[in-house]
Design brief:
The structure holds three protein chains of three kinds. In chain A, helix 6 links the parallel strand 4 (about 90) and strand 5 (about 110). By secondary structure, chain A is α/β, with parallel strands linked by helices. Chain A folds into two domains: about 1-120, 3-Layer(aba) Sandwich (Rossmann fold), CATH 3.40.50.2300; about 135-205, no CATH class. Chain A contains eight helices and nine strands. Chain B is α/β, with parallel strands linked by helices. Chain B has an eight-stranded parallel barrel, surrounded by six helices. In chain B, helix 9 (about 245-250) packs antiparallel against helix 10. Classes of the chains: A alpha/beta, B alpha/beta, C alpha/beta. Chains in contact: A-B, A-C. The interface of A and B includes residues 154, 162 and 199 of A.
């Protein structure tokens, strides 16, 4: 999923200050799962903002709404009936959702309420960790299903570097050395001999290096 | 000979090679480079010039190498994949070679997290092994990494780093094998304090015959104080400092610790000279370059051979 | 000047604190009338939004009272809500309401005295802190809203 974290309240408060009527929009997908911008978080943020302004004797009109999927025009359309009653949209979706609203409603400011972080998985309740960088040319088949691009601090395709200590990365004892994980896994799979194959320099064209990307499925595209 | 490199010639002659390093200054101070290099003149075969070492901005390795080259000495251009993509790296290699720099060391580099610009994007377009491969291709095939021909391809004598003390230990010989396969001519190791472990690693290297493909220069660093020993033991990732070294440093009075550090360093070199597969020494006297001549002499590595 | 009488909302678990409140009553232990009890099937049922809404609607202090550690009828609702309380405390600090207006307490069904003491102490503390800052700008409605 795409993970996100709520921005500091101070920053959100600052960004909505110029506006009187806010449409606070959550998303039912990834940000709900990572507890950053689903219906629950929308409610809590609305309440926090409300109290913040009440404290100063001001009022703010906040309309709460959570869409099925904020990165999809079909659902973003649902906001159209509210748009003429608000001054700005505060989105709790990932950057994709924010941009979809901006694209559809050209005359309304859209403000992000979360920082979009990474594509990750849930390690345990309340903990999410980065797993994929969307390089566009998956090599997980060669590395025992563990990605060195997303999970090695130096993106080494031929690791580990000289900083790997007790299975941890040199940047922090909290970070696993992904090459230790890869090696352990290759051993478990009986694929140790793979290790000495040199992985060639990566072609980053399939990733962000090639500019903004797009997928077109001819059979589906209208 | 694959290159014009003095280091290559020394190694080919069968002599133990000696290299040391010079960390460029954190400012546009050419005299500082000259001062440090001058201390090493005649005592080492080549001088490594670090590239934004510990991820702190310093005068570029390339520029400091040129200064050292102009002094009639032999610099080793260190380059890390952290700060440059493949275009910039190849451009600098062409430039360095145009200035007569013919020996280099290919590294991935410390993470910016440790340095003075933790905000910086780390590039890591390629890794150290792919880097070795790239420089090797430039020399042997005369082409850029992208495939185009190079006019007057740079013939670099290619070095890499090896850390026998990092984890997992069982991969450390295999990793050297990968670097050799990629085209490394020599490696300089991490500072060796745990000699037993180094010898175990070296045995693995020799068993696979890797020492015949790639020259291993054993890395040594004299300790200045017991505090430094403790710091290296506890704080530097991938460093293995046994308790006996820390205890030995701490066991002598403060004013004698530097002397003890030099002694340990010399003793290490003496012992490592007899280890099969060791082709020379890389003496990293961090901000203590003036001690290198003493170490080289005491270790019986002086005078340096004259190679035409 | 009239003494400020805070409005306090206490989310009480049916299996412990709510029964403890009953016990306090039957023992004729007095506790401040400021405390408005909301009975919940488990303290773990109390969500961050409930705590926020209590303050938004004018509570001056809020607390959650759950079972003693290890005694939750639903295994660990009490420890779960404790983490939520800590989270909301931070949020309240961020918006200048003050995290100290929100607390978590543990007690068993038999602890009538403890219930009365907690209610008294919390009331004292909030009285000292003064009204919920959201009500600072409006006058005369102290203690009206809520529950």
């Amino acid at each position: 999923m795409i993970t996100a974290e709520r921005k500091p309240l101070e920053e959100i408060i600052d960004s909505v200050k110029p506006f009187q009527r806010i449409l606070l929009v959550g998303c039912n997908e990834c940000v709900t799962v990572c507890a950053a911008g689903g219906r629950k978080e929308v409610g809590i943020l609305a309440s926090a903002l409300q109290m913040n302004f009440m404290k100063a004797g001001q009022t703010i009109d906040i309309k709460e709404l959570t869409l099925e999927r904020q990165c999809d025009p079909e659902y973003v359309e649902e906001l159209s009936t509210h748009m003429d009653q608000v001054d700005a949209v505060l989105s709790m979706a990932c950057g994709c959702g924010v941009q979809e609203i901006a694209r559809r409603y050209k005359d309304k400011p859209v403000l992000p309420a979360v920082n979009t972080k990474f594509m990750g998985a849930s390690e345990r309740q309340g903990v999410w960790a980065e797993r994929c960088q969307g390089c566009g040319d998956c090599l997980l088949g060669l590395t025992g299903g563990i990605c060195p691009i997303a999970r090695c601090s130096k993106r080494l395709l031929n690791g580990p570097c000289g900083g790997s200590t007790n299975g941890k990365c040199e940047i922090s004892p909290e970070v696993d050395c992904v090459w230790q994980l890869i090696w352990d896994r290759l051993k478990a799979l009986g694929m140790e001999d793979r290790y000495e194959d040199i992985m060639p320099a990566k072609n980053w064209q399939t990733g962000r290096g090639g500019g903004p990307r797009k997928i077109i499925r001819e059979d589906l595209a209208e | 000979m694959k290159t014009e490199s003095t280091l290559e010639k020394i190694l080919a002659s069968g002599n133990l090679a000696v290299t040391s390093e010079c960390g460029p200054p954190r400012g546009a101070v050419p005299d500082k480079v000259k001062e440090k290099a001058e201390m090493l003149r005649g005592y080492v075969d080549a001088v490594n010039v670090t590239d934004n070492q510990t991820a702190m901005v310093r005068m570029s390795s390339f520029a400091a190498c040129v200064i050292i080259k102009q002094m009639g000495m032999d610099p080793i251009l260190q380059m890390v994949t952290r700060d440059r993509n493949r275009l910039a790296m190849q451009a600098d290699i062409l430039g360095a070679y145009a200035h007569g720099i013919d020996t280099m060391l290919c590294l991935s580099g410390d993470h910016p997290h440790f340095g003075d610009h933790p905000q910086a994007m780390n590039v890591h377009d390629i890794d150290s092994i792919q880097f070795v491969q790239m420089v090797h291709t430039m020399r042997e095939k005369g082409t850029f990494q992208g495939g185009d021909d190079i006019i007057n391809p740079p013939k670099m004598f290619i070095g890499a780093a090896a850390n026998p003390f990092a984890d997992p230990f069982e991969l450390r010989v295999a990793r050297l094998a990968k670097k050799a396969k990629a085209g490394a001519d020599f490696v300089q190791t991490q500072c060796i304090y745990n000699l037993d472990k180094f010898e175990t690693w070296m045995k693995g290297v020799v068993d696979r015959g890797l020492h015949e493909k790639v020259h291993v220069l054993a890395g040594v660093t004299p300790m200045k104080t017991a505090g430094m020993a403790r710091y290296m033991k506890n704080k530097v990732p991938g460093m293995d400092v046994p308790d006996e070294i820390v205890d030995r440093m701490a066991g002598v009075p403060k004013e004698k610790q530097a002397e003890e550090g030099i002694k340990i360093c010399v003793e290490s070199i003496q012992r490592l000279k007899d280890v099969e597969g060791v082709s020379g020494f890389h003496i990293m006297a961090i901000e203590w370059e003036q001690k290198v001549p003493e170490i080289v002499k005491k270790a019986g590595l002086y005078p340096r051979p004259e190679i035409a | 000047m009239k003494q400020f009488e805070p409005v306090i909302v206490a989310f009480c678990c049916h299996y412990c604190a709510y029964t403890a409140a009953d016990m306090a009553g039957s023992k004729r232990l007095s506790y401040p009338a400021n405390v408005n009890i909301v009975r919940v099937p488990c303290s773990g049922k109390v969500d961050a939004i409930h705590l926020m809404k209590a303050f938004e609607k004018g509570a001056d202090g809020v607390y959650v009272a759950g079972c003693l550690e290890g005694d939750c009828h639903f295994k660990n609702g009490n420890t779960k809500v404790a983490r939520r309380v800590a989270y909301v405390k931070k949020l309240l600090d961020e918006i200048g309401i003050g995290g100290e207006r929100l607390e978590m307490f543990y007690m068993s069904a038999g602890m009538g005295e403890r219930f009365a003491r907690v209610a008294t102490e919390m009331t004292k503390k909030i009285r000292k802190l003064g009204p919920n800052p959201t009500k600072a700008m409006s006058t005369g409605n102290q203690g009206e809203a809520v529950a």
